[in-house]
Amino acid sequence: SNFRPSNPAGNYSFTDSWTRRVFNKTGGGDAIASMLLGLASGGQIRSEPLLALQVKYAALYLQDDWRVSNRLTLNLGLRWDTDFPQTERFDRASWYDLNAKFPLQVPGMDPFYGGIVFAGSRTPGAPRGVRDVDRNNFAPRVGLAYKLTPALVVRTGFGIFYAPTTGIGPNATNAGALGFNAITPYNSSIDGGRSPYTNLANPFPDGFIPPENGQNGLLTFVGQGINGNFRYDRVPYSAQWNFNIQYQLPESMLFDVAYAGNSGVKLQTNGQTNQLADSYLSLGDQLNKAVDNPFFGILPAATNLGKKTVTYGQLLLPRPWLTGLTQQWGTMAHSSYHALQTKFRKRYAGGLQFLVAYTWSKTIDDVSSVAGFLGDQNPGYTNNNRRDLDRSLSAIHVPHVLAINYQWELPLGRGKQWLNQGGWLNHVAGGWVVNGITSIQSGTPISIASRNNTTNSYGGGQRPNSTGISSKTEGSTGGRIYGWFNPAAFADAPLYKFGNVGRFLPDNLGPPLHSWDISILKDFNLTERFRLQFRSEFFNAFNQTNFANPAGTTLGQPNFGIITGAERARIIQFGLKLYY
Questions:
Q1: In terms of Cα–Cα distance, which of 162, 148, 151, 340 is closest to 243?
Q2: pLDDT at 279 over 80
Q3: CA-CA distance, 86 to 214, in Å (whole number)?
Q4: How high does pLDDT run on average in the chain?
């Protein structure tokens, strides 16, 4: 049972669009001024149902470890995953059918196709699940270990791993409960942004859109934007492979070097399928021209498309009776990861152990996270008609990572190499342990945003153009905090052009990270049964300044390229623990 309503009291956003000097040109406006005037640029208010959801998942696997000889071992396996479609106890579920003949007839326009189909008993003959069953999820696994010499071992392996969708947090949107929730959009303008249609004093003058509860069939949410499930989506999976060499050194030490690869296939993301065709962008300002609305009197007056006029660009959309059609959690993204992984380990001996690990890697994808936990550094698609052009460094790309962990019991006090005595000397000098973790790594990728969107692509975005100059400025990290980017590297994209700067900059990562976390422990052996431990823990022990990524990543803004934050400073804490 799930109830997580979104925006039950309304949500409103503000930009500089209502206070600009020219409505479709940049400059002269301010989002705060728009808010003080009560002129929002967008928003919505919505109601949602309490759902009773069910997802069934089953898997079978076979595995065998085969020791071919005293040198060669094979690991063989095959797994089959079945991720059944999500259902709702009362069939409050749906999906968007791109091929369904739409029952709406509009004079002078071709027949329409596409609409929401409701599950089970609500649509005769319809299945209860929100997508087709994916039954071909076979996942082979193969591993090999070969001992070349008593001290040298080679390992390699390959496997496919499916990601069942049972863990997706269900709500009225991604459960496909469209029609059982209701969204009333904030309609800021009906003439392409030239003049406001409403304000915060009366944000919904045409009333609220009530839940239809599936009664309108294919006409559900007509005139609005839809976030729908598509039945043809499949189960995501990753293909993983590696090649590894391990060499055992004297004194309980080990050296390990490996290549590791990972390819994420059919990963989940959101994509806009009702975007204006790129060829229409050449019409320029004509797209914003207000024209007579052929849907007037046909679509509900409370929707954005139920007014007397509409923009010309709206009528050119693939589905002009909708303001947008988002494929929710669609399996259309891809990622790749390649890494050189090395480590040097000294196993515990003589009171000392440590591990030094270095990774040199590259991570590429076209969407880094659909969940949004990466915040502003997780931009959506620039052009939904060409999602392949958004392939770039991933938001989680960190090319160089050096990690060292260590523990050292000082050789002092009773039973140790030095000062092997009891009494007060042992209480002072004995029982000391130092351990810690040292992390040194590259910065993370940065995305540059355009100061506005003039593409009128109804779902796409806009980025600046590259001038061919590197965006990276010269100097140390501390010397670049007021100018992390070279402004000459970017230029505003022309009106109605997407811009060619990538999703993340390929040549300019954020500031690196250096961190030393150290603990100093002292054990006091009170009796055979009782032991007292005193701990001193130093996080960022040397108070290294680790700057955050620039706060200003929008071209043309006053803080563009300026770093205004940093990671935590040094933290010291003490603890006392009694063992018995």
A1: 340
A2: yes
A3: 18
A4: 90
